[in-house]
Each structure stands twice: as C-alpha cells, then as structure tokens.
TrEMBL record:
A Gene Ontology term for the protein's cellular component: plasma membrane
Protein name according to UniProt: histidine kinase
PANTHER family named among the record's database cross-references: OSMOSENSING HISTIDINE PROTEIN KINASE SLN1 (PTHR43047:SF72), TWO-COMPONENT HISTIDINE PROTEIN KINASE (PTHR43047)
Species, as recorded: Sphingomonas leidyi
CDD domains: HisKA
E.C. number(s) listed in UniProt: 2.7.13.3
Coiled-coil blocks: 155-182
Keywords in alphabetical order: Coiled coil, Kinase, Phosphoprotein, Transferase
UniProt GO MF annotations: histidine phosphotransfer kinase activity; phosphorelay sensor kinase activity
InterPro entries reported in the protein's UniProt record: HATPase_C_sf, HATPase_dom, His_kinase_dom, HisK_dim/P_dom, HisK_dim/P_sf, Sig_transdc_His_kin-like_C
Length: 779
C-alpha cells in the first residue's frame, strides 16, 4: 500500500483543479469559437445568397491577369467554362464583343496603374443583354495586390429605357426644331413672355413688324408690337392670361410698315408660368365687316324698291325687316311691325287680313310653315288668294333666320292662259295659211301645217315621228327635179337655227312645180321654213324673159340704127357748116345785113345739131364700153369743163362761178368721161338759166368720195320733169308748154357717173332753180 502525503495530495488536487479549470475554459473557448464559426458561416451564406441574387456580379482581375468570377456572371457572358485570363473574355461566340473586350482591357490596365475608377457599357456576344461595368482598384481585404474589381450590372432594361428615352428625346428635339421653324416662318408676329411678362423670344414677323434689327435686338430693347401702357396696353391681356390661366384675346391698333392696322392679340398661358402670344391682322376683316354692313344696308334698300314682297326673320323668329310691297300686299301697318312680331303672329295677322290660302287645319298648316326655318333647302309654293296668285319662296338663312319672298304671279298666270290661247290661234293660223310652213328645232321637225304635208305628199305617220332634218332631206330628194337640191333645205335650216341667218332659195319639183323656200331664225332658237308656190311666177317670168330678149334685140337694132344715122348725118352737116362758113366769110360775095344774120343762125344751128349728134353717139357707143382707169384730178377736170362752157355762159350774160373747197382731190377713173359729166351738167344749167342769171360749180370731198355740185337760179323743173330728167329720150316726149327739153346731157352724165360706181341726184322746185349733186368714190 502506497502512502501519499497530505502535501502531495494537496498539490495533486491543485493540479487536478487547474486541469479541470483549463478543460472547462478550453471547452468554453471551443463552444464560443464554434458559435462564432456558425455565425460567420450563416453570414457568409447570407452574403453569398445576396451576392448571387444581386443585380451586380463581381469579377476580380489580379495583377497577373488571372480572373475570379462567379458562375452567374459566366452565364451572363455565355461561358460554358469560366475563363481564367482577361484575354479569354472574348472568343468562340461567348463573352464580350471583341471591341468591348478590348476597351475593357484598356480601362483595367489604367485602373491597375493609376487606380482610376471607370464605368463602361458592354454587350455579350450573341445576346441582347447590355452590361454596365464599374471598375475600381481591389481593396486590401480582398488580398489581391494590384488587382481590380469589376462590378457587372445587368442594364438591359435600363438600356432599353435609355434608348427609348433617347428616341423620345430625339423625336421631341425634332418636333421642337420643327415648331421653332414653324414659328419662325409664320407670317404673323409671335412671341413668348416670361413670368414677369418680359419678352424672351420673338419670330421674324415680329421683328419685321416692329422694325427691329433682329430677335436679340428686339428682346433686349423690349420693343412691343402694340403701343400703349397701363391697363389698356399690350401687357394687359398677357397679365390677365397669366393670372387667370385662361387664354385672352383683344383687338388693338398698331402701326406696321407706316400703316395703321387693326390686330387681334391672342395671349395663351403656359404651364411654365410664361405667356405665349400671336397677333392676327384683322384690318381686312374689319373692312370686310364694315363692307358687309354697308352691303346689308344697300341690300335692304334695294329690297325695299323691288316689286316682290320681302320679309326677313331673325334667329329668334322675329320679324326684323319687311319692304313696302310686303306691307301693302298683306295690309300690315308700320306701327304693328315696329314691335318685331314673331313668325306665328305674322301668319295670324296675314290670316286676319284674308291674305292666306284657305286651309282646313290651320294650326297644322302653320306648324308645317315653322319647319321652314330648319329646312335644308329653299321651299317654294303657290298661294291662291281668290283672283290673286302668289309665288312664295322660303329661304333659310345660314345664321338661323328665314327670308320670305312673295311674288305676285297673277299676271303671269293670265299670260300663261293667253299663251295657251295664242298657241291654239297659232295652230289654227298655220293650218289656214296658203303657204307651206314648218318649224324645226333641235335638229327635228317640230311643227307643220296641212299645206306642208300636201306639198311634199308625206305620210302622216312619217311627220308624226318628228323626223330629223337629214331624214326629211333624204325623203324629199326623189320628189325634186334634181335630187341633190334637197341638200339646200338642210343647209337653209342649219344656217337659220345655228348661224341665226335668214337665207332663201328655190327648188323645182319633178312634176314641174316651183317653190321659193325661205328659212328664218326664230327667237327661241328654232328655224321657220316657208314655201311659196311660184309656179305661175316662173311661167310669167319665162314669158317676160322671152319678151325682154326680143326687146333687147330691138333696142340693139335701134341703137345701131341711131348710131348709123348719126354717122350719116355728120357728112351733110359738115358740108352745111362748111358752105355756111364760106357764105358768112364772103367767099360768094358780100352779104347783106340780113343775109349775114341768116348765115350766123345757120352756123349756130349747125353747132347745136353737131353737139346733139355727138351726144347721141356717146350715148350709144359708151354703153357697156370699158372705162380707163387712171388717177383723175377733179379740180383740173372741172376747170377744163368750166372753160369749155364759159363762152356759152358769157353769150347769155350768165355769171359762171367755180367754188373749190380744196378737198375734192383725185379719184381713179376715166378723165375724159369725168370732164364730160361736169360739162354736161354745166351746159344743162346754162341752158336752163335765163339771161343775167347765175350758175355755181362747187367742189369738195372727204376720204371716201369726191363731190361735184352744180346749181342755178333758173325757173326750176316740175316734179314730173325732175323725175324723168335722167331717162334717155323720154324727156323729149314729156316736155310741156313752158318746159324745155333737157337734152341728152343729163342721161349721159348719169351713165358716166354710174359707170364709175358713183351717185347722181337732182333736186328742183318750180321757181327755185335746180341743184345736181354727183358723188364719185375714191376707189
């Protein structure tokens, strides 16, 4: 048995106690460390869960380029196997786009060297995912000296929103630019004011209106479009619009381009607290409004003067205007109209005056008339008031009123009745006419009488079909002597209906009948065709033509006989003249005083007979003979003629006066014949004028004709003698007791004047002398 001392036992107990205490302390420390480890593990699990679910994933890039990244980030980048190097972030259809990977490498190198943080937007290959990379130097706790932590944030939705906002901003910017350009190009002044009502922006039209240098100059100087200050100034509208939040308008005068113009200002409050405004030039509108008022006044004045009754009702259906014919027509007094009665009251008043048609249900009738105010178009009807007939036109007005017109058609109804009677009279008249008559309109036969059908022997069925003109022409052709002449009928109808020209012609039927056909345009655009039977006329004309040919042959024989006789008379007349001159000259011995007088008388008679023979020859030979065509000076021809007649006038003591107005000029014609015309007229005047008388030869003219006037103060001529003065040979048989024959001078003068297409006229009264006027055309 081992014996242990007390001291040893104490020491051993102490040691055991210390060991126990150490074990307990170690247990305590172990339990505490375990609890802390569990807490750390929980925190680490919680942080790992947060990191794995975070929208941002971290990638650690060490100084040597090695990468540490989570699986989730690898999935974002499309890697099946996580890359180990920075250079492996792009390639094989996974990772970043090459250009993004290159840019990221440059930024990472800069961050490693200078510690400069950065942010970069990148995209994954083959994916629409957009990533935002935020890089910064790795903290010391990461235990990666020289490393860089890259935080990848999935910004796909944010980038889409950013892109949408960018597109919206682009659209808004384009709209703003377009609006700005529109405002700038607007022809009206436009402006924008701030909250303090100072101008902040104006367009070019505003600058031009205030005659500013440019928009900046106008804004800087605060040039207002409208003059004035205070409550009535240009800022009053803007202030009201700003304070009330409601758009304001006002009309104000302004001076633009040196002219006074009326502007309508519009001020519109904006959410920004400012006020936008624009001005519309209403000067022309104001003038048009004034003109419209004047037009309305003139229109009412005109309506007050027309014969139709006019009543105008306003939008409230009250009578605002009525003219004098309306008041007379419906027996309405001015005092009653002054109260502007309503439409129903006017109808009632018209009914009381028996100026409305009789109706069974008057209230219903009146209700229908009220609908006139809202009718889509004008309403027209006829009111029969006993023997009076009124045409009523109800015209709704755009502003909501009604215009009523009452036209008295009584006379028109009477005219229509008379027109119907006239139609019957016309039909009866056409049927009773002896001439064939037809009316054509619109290219067809419209009316015809019985004689027309009988002349052409057309069937009733053919005429009742109102054939066209060409059908009628084709049917008429076989009935004519020459079928082609039927086209003349169509031509006449067309000229009358279309060209409005009256034309006529003649047609011969195959059976020997002759008709004169005439087409006359009618006022209604139709053509009237008449056919006159001229068969007897043609027979008489044929007989007269045969007789005329016989007379012309006899006249030619007579003319030839007279011409031959004139030539035959010249031979003995020349001998008589020669022997008479020898006797008078004393070749046969001296003559007694009476013998000399006899010889002189013989010579005068011979001279006169020679002139008559010359006139006869001129009359027979010049008929139908061509004239010379050359310039003829009328003054020279007249002077020569006057000199030839002067000895005859001097022998009778007659004053022969030539009066030249200086405008006779020249004509184109036969100079010898013109001189003979004037000489014959002068000889006739000298022969008809007593001794100591006066004969005047007057010359004048114009641009169209030259005029020769021969007048005398002789005894004049009777009406019968003056009427036959220009007839050849007739005046010798018509000369009476105191009247002398006019000879052949006047007929010759007329023949020569008419050969020059001129005109000759003789005016004479017994005891008043004679005046002969000749007009010769210039051409």
């Amino acid at each position: 048995m081992i014996h242990i001392s007390q001291a040893s036992a104490v020491v051993a107990g102490a040691v055991l106690a210390l060991l126990l205490i150490g074990a307990v302390w170690a247990l305590y420390l172990g339990l505490r460390a375990r609890a802390e480890a569990v807490a750390i593990a929980d925190a680490n699990a919680r942080l790992s869960a947060l990191v794995s679910g975070s929208p941002a994933q971290a990638m650690l890039v060490r100084a040597d380029g090695r990468l540490e990244l989570p699986r989730r980030l690898g999935d974002w980048l499309g890697f099946q196997q996580l890359p180990r190097e920075l250079a492996e972030l792009s390639g094989d259809g996974a990772g970043l786009l090459p250009e993004d990977a290159e840019a990221l490498g440059v930024r990472v190198a800069a961050a490693q060297k200078a510690g400069k943080p950065f942010s970069l937007s990148v995209r994954a290959c083959g994916s629409e995912r957009a990533l935002l990379v935020i890089g910064e130097r790795a903290p010391q706790a990461v235990n990666a000296p020289g490393g860089v932590v890259l935080w990848f944030l999935d910004a796909t939705e944010s980038q889409a929103e950013i892109n949408r906002l960018q597109r919206e901003a682009t659209r808004l910017r384009a709209a703003f630019d377009a609006l700005t350009a529109l405002i700038e190009a607007a022809p009206m002044p436009m402006w924008y004011r701030g909250g303090d009502l100072r101008l902040l922006m104006v367009n070019s039209a505003y600058v031009e209106a205030v005659e500013g240098k440019d928009a900046e100059d106008v804004v800087a100087r605060g040039l207002e479009l409208v003059e004035g200050v205070g409550l009535g100034g240009p800022l009053a509208n803007a202030a009201i619009a700003r304070d009330t939040g409601e758009p304001q308008t006002a009309a104000m005068p302004a001076t633009i381009g040196g002219k006074r113009r009326m502007l309508r200002l519009h001020d519109v409050p904006l959410p920004t607290g400012g006020v936008a405004g624009f001005a519309v030039d209403i000067e022309e509108l104001e003038q048009a409004r004034g003109g419209l008022k004047r037009f309305a006044a003139a229109q009412r004045a005109m309506l007050d003067r027309i014969s139709a009754g006019v009543a105008q009702f306003g939008p409230d259906r009250s009578l605002i205007f009525s003219n004098q014919p309306f008041r007379r027509m419906f027996a309405v007094k001015n005092e009653w109209l002054a109260d502007r009665p309503e439409f129903d009251r006017v109808l009632d008043r018209m009914r009381e005056a028996n100026r409305l048609p009789e109706v069974r249900d008057y209230p219903a009738w009146k209700a229908e008339r009220r609908e006139w105010f809202v009718a889509p178009d004008a309403v027209e009807e006829t009111w029969s008031l006993g023997a009076t007939h009124l045409r009523v036109v109800a015209q709704p007005l755009p502003e909501g009123g009604l215009l009523l017109l009452f036209e008295d058609r009584t006379q028109q109804f009477e005219l229509q009745r008379e027109h119907g009677e006239m139609q019957q009279v016309r039909t009866a008249t056409l049927e009773s006419l002896a001439e064939a008559v037809a009316v054509f309109g619109k290219g067809r036969l419209q009316l015809w009488n019985r004689k027309f059908r009988q002349v052409w022997d057309f069937e009733d069925a053919f005429l009742d079909g109102h054939p066209q003109v060409q059908q009628l022409v084709r049917a008429a052709g076989p009935r004519l002597a020459k079928s082609a002449r039927a086209e003349v009928i169509g031509d006449l109808i067309r000229m009358a209906a279309q060209d409005r020209q009256s034309r006529g012609s003649s047609i011969a039927f195959a059976d020997g009948r002759h008709f004169d056909i005439t087409a006359v345009p009618l006022p209604d655009g139709n053509a009237l065709v008449t056919m006159l039977d001229t068969t007897d006329h043609h027979r008489a004309e044929r007989a007269l033509r045969d007789r005329n040919e016989a007379l012309e042959a006899a006249d030619r024989v007579k003319t030839a006989f007279v011409a031959n006789m004139s030539y035959e008379l010249r031979t003995p007349l020349t001998s008589i003249k020669g022997f008479a001159e020898m006797l008078h000259g004393g070749f046969a011995g001296p003559l007694s005083a009476s013998g000399g007088e006899y010889a002189e008388a013989i010579l005068v008679s011979v001279e006169r007979l020679g002139l008559l023979i010359d006139d006869v020859l001129d009359l027979t030979q010049s008929e139908g003979a061509p004239l010379e065509r050359a310039p003829v000076d009328i003054e020279i021809a007249a002077q020569n003629a006057a000199e030839a007649v002067a000895p005859l006038a001097k022998a009778k003591g007659i004053e022969l006066v030539v009066e030249d107005a200086g405008s006779a000029g020249s004509i184109t014609g036969d100079a010898r014949r013109i001189r003979q015309v004037i000489e014959h007229l002068l000889r006739h005047a000298v022969a008809a004028t007593p001794e100591q008388g006066r004969v005047l030869l007057h010359l004048d003219g114009n641009q169209r004709v030259a005029r020769v006037i021969v007048s005398d103060n002789g005894p004049g001529m009777s009406h019968e003698a003056a009427a036959g003065a220009f007839d050849r040979f007739a005046q010798f048989g018509n000369a009476r007791g105191g009247e002398r024959a006019t000879g052949l001078g006047l007929p010759l003068a007329r023949q020569f004047v008419e050969a020059h297409r001129g005109r000759i006229e003789l005016i004479s009264e017994p005891g008043e002398g004679t005046l002969v006027t000749v007009e010769l055309p210039r051409k």
